[in-house]
Design a protein that fits this description.
Distance between the termini: 74 Å
Shape: rod-shaped
Order of helices and strands: H
Number of helices: 1
Strand content: under 5%
Helix content: over 70%
Largest sheet: none
Radius of gyration: 21 Å
């Protein structure tokens, strides 16, 4: 019977976590940029 490769499974989970964390960071950065642009537009209209 083959032995389960737990280190590979752990590595895979870690890669998924890093990917999800990077996506969250990009989403927050994009949201922050959108808010900044809206503020700039509002300031120029006044």
């Amino acid at each position: 019977m083959a032995k389960t490769n737990y280190s590979y499974a752990k590595h895979t989970r870690e890669l998924e976590k890093e990917k999800k964390k990077e996506e969250k960071r990009k989403k927050k950065l994009a949201q922050k940029n959108d808010e900044t642009q809206k503020e700039d537009i509002n300031n120029t209209e006044k």
